[in-house]
Amino acid sequence: MKKCIYLLSIFIIAANSIFAENIRSPIKNSSSKFSSDSQSLEVLINQIQREQEAYYKLLKEWGKEKTKIAGEINFLKREKELLDKSINDNQKELSSLKAQVEKIKKELEEKGKSQISYSPYLWNCVKKLEDTINKGLPFHIKERKRRVERLKGLLNEENETLEKKFKKLWEVLQIELNYGDSCEVYEGSIKVSKNKIKMVKMLRIGKIALFYRTLDGKEYGLLRGSYPDYEWIINLNSSSIKEIKSAIDIIEKMKPSSIVSIPLSITKEVEVKSR
């Protein structure tokens, strides 16, 4: 009987030992799994924090860039308005001459007036044309003045018909009108001192802006002021020089057409689209 009791006791102890081991094993496994999940969650949180920081940094940079772009757009809008006004003023002046010619042509057809009646009109147009050339930007001055002198010589010819005189006047006016609506690059010379002439490549923007680049490409300048106090400015910043060079290359068809922002003066710039 004692022996049975002893064996039963051994059996119970062994069973308890097995049961305890089975209990500890899941707890141990569960603890290991929890530790692993905790580490993964921490890595994920750190990654989210880094991405959030990068997002806010990018958002802040974009805010600065957006403000800068908005300022540039507003600046270009203001300068475009100034450019439009300047172009309109030039066009009005020359269009006035054109209107006078058209009016005279119409009166000729309707009333058949004599040359003597229209002579004052013709000379008035020539005088306004001379003023436009003398007080405007000094480009192609010799050529333009020679053209006017030939016109004046024709008007003085009593044997020439009124029709021919009007035709020649209109041709000269049309050339001047085309200057106001075009850009060009040509070689010319500028006076840099009392006895020194410099050969340069000139850039003309309509009848509102004139620039130059030396033939070796090392010096750039723009014409500042108004008649009769024009002066060449050469202390241009690198941005202005880059835009002037681009404008020259576009007009000479050395690069595709694009929009460039070139200086009209030291403090003003204008948006110009190459044709």
Features:
275 residues, alpha+beta, 5-stranded antiparallel β-sheet, two-stranded antiparallel ribbon, disordered N terminus, disordered C terminus
Provide an overview of this structure:
There is one protein chain. The chain is of the alpha+beta class. Among the domains are: 97-179, no CATH class; 183-273. It is 65% helix and 16% strand. The protein contains five helices and seven strands. Helix 3 (141-155) packs antiparallel against helix 4 (162-179). The N and C termini lie far apart (121 Å). Mean pLDDT is 79; it is low at 2-8 and 266-275.
Shape: elongated
Q: Provide a count of the helices.
A: 5
Strand order of the largest sheet: 1-2-3-4-5
Task: Report the strand count.
Answer: 7
Helix and strand run? HHHHEEEEEHEE
C-alpha end-to-end distance: 121 Å
Unreliable runs: 2-8, 266-275
The biggest beta sheet is recorded as:
5 strands, antiparallel
Helix/strand/pairing category: alpha+beta
Taken as a percent bin, the fraction of beta residues is 15-25%
Integer average pLDDT? 79
Helix percent reads 55-70%
Global Rg? 42 Å
